[in-house]
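During the no-cost extension, the postdoctoral fellow (Dr. R.K.) reprocessed legacy sequence entries with the updated structure-token encoder. One reprocessed record is reproduced below for audit purposes.
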Amino acid sequence: MMTPNDPYPDVDDDTLVARYAMGDQSAARALTTRHASRLIALGYRMLGDRAEAEDVAQEALMRLWKTAADWQAGGAKLSTWLYRVASNLCIDRLRRARSEPLDAAPEQIDEAPSVEARLQTQSRAAALHAALATLPERQRLAVSLRFLDDLANPEIADIMELSVDAVESLLARGKRALAAQLRPMGDAL
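Re-encoded structure tokens follow.
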């Protein structure tokens, strides 16, 4: 994914990884600019904590830097590989934290005054986030990647190391569960 701040918009990820492996630090900055925000967003949706999400993104990129010299250009798409690493890191953190109920985590409240439309948007996002948090982790990951990151089912299958049919099944079950949870709040949202 190219971003407006990308210093190398015409250079593909594989080339940048190869440049980094040869010591080009600007290539690492370019890859971080391209991918970190999406990894943080995925981590936040999975973990519900910005600091944890940033840690996951940092760890995923650190793993890339450690394997840069061995990166096989033309193999796996870099974004797919990073999503897979980040999603596995999130699942590991969720499994370690299972002993703590999700309700025990403090909610972040925006105390700044805002307009009615922003409040409604925040309410919708909070309701969706709360509903996502109740899904089993594999459904949550599949739904997040498909509908919030707009990835295609085959790419999600690669990230999750599943068949496309299994991804479609996870998405269908996840959508039904979300609809059932959000339906009673329909008028309020």
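Residues 36 and 57 are 6 Å apart (CA to CA). The helical segments are 13-21, 25-47, 50-67, 78-96, 116-134, 137-148, 153-160, 164-182. The remaining legacy entries will be reprocessed before the final report is submitted.
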